[in-house]
Structure formats: structure tokens, C-alpha cells
Amino acid sequence: MSHRKPPHRPGGFRKEPPRRPGRKALQLCKQVSHVLTYLLGECRDEVLQSLYVDRVEPAPDDKRLLVTVQLPADAPPPDNVLARLFNQIGFFRSEIAAEIHRKRVPELAFRCIPHGVSLEPTQNDSDHEEEN
Fold first, then answer.
1. Tell me: the pLDDT tens digits for 47-84?
2. Cα gap 68→103, rounded to integer Å
3. In terms of Cα–Cα distance, which of 69, 67, 48, 51 is closest to 59?
4. Among 27, 68, 116, 120, which residue's CB has the most CB atoms within a 10 Å radius?
5. What is the mean pLDDT of the chain?
6. Residue 36: CB partners within 8 Å, gap ≥ 6?
7. Mind spelling out the 3-state secondary structure of the chain?
8. What crossing angle do the helices spanning 23-42 and 89-100 adopt, rounded to 10°?
9. Residue 19: alpha-carbon gap to chain centroid
10. What is the pLDDT of residue 127?
11. For 1-21, how does the pLDDT look when each residue is reduced to its tens digit (9 = 90+)?
């Protein structure tokens, strides 16, 4: 019985194409978007009140979500807004936990886009358009 190594493939392992988020991940993103929209609107911080939740998407899966917020035209610099969001992240996660009824609450990451700028539609967006 001979133990032979499989032939070496140049380039190492083959990279798999990115997986589309499942129905549950997309449902979670939608729930988190609704909760954050409400929380930002009720926030005492006027800068956070003025933000619009543009989208929430898995990054890379439903254990971590990327929240994209759109800044109003008169908003302070994005770094300032991100710092304010980061200061509230514990509160956001606790409120999300109370609303989504999951064993583990996803980590949140934020990014800001300027007023009037639209991101390219993701695969998730095109899936939702087909459903409507």
C-alpha cells in the first residue's frame, strides 16, 4: 500500500465564489435596519438623529453586519459621525437583542456615505427587487 501525495496544484487552493446570504441572514438584516432606524430617530444626539440607514448587509455573514448610513448635507465629518455611532454601539446591540430574539446578537460595523450618493446595488438588493 503506497501513500502518495496528490499532485501539487499551482496557485494553491481554489477560491470559492462568494456565497449569497441566505433567507435568514437577509431577514436579520432587515430587522436590524428597522431597529436602528427607530433608535437613531429617537436618539438625543442631533447628528445621529439626522442619519438615514441606507442598508444593512452581512459582513461576511450574519455574525457581523455592516450598516451603511447616509449623512445629511450639513453633517460633520464622517470620522466624527462614526465616533458617535461607535460610542452608542453597546446600546444599539442591547436594543437589537431585545427586538430580534436571537441567541447571539451580531457585531455591528458602520460606514458613512455622503448625502445623495447611492451605492451600487448588491446581490441582496437585486434579490429583493425580484421578490417585489
1. 999 999 999 999 988 899 999 999 999 989 999 999 99
2. 24
3. 67
4. 68
5. 83
6. 53, 56, 67, 92, 96
7. CCCCCCCCCCCCCCCCCCCCCCHHHHHHHHHHHHHHHHHHHHCCCHHHHCCEEEEEEECCCCCEEEEEEECCCCCCCHHHHHHHHHHCHHHHHHHHHHHHCCCCCCEEEEEEECCCCCCCCCHHHHHHHHHC
8. 120
9. 16
10. 46
11. 556 665 555 555 555 555 677
Q: Which amino acid is at 64?
A: R
Grid cell listed for 92: 444599539
Q: Which residues contact 86 (CB under 8 A, 6 or more apart)?
A: 110
All domains of the chain in start order, with CATH: 23-116 (3.30.300.20)
Distance CA 64, CA 50 (A): 24
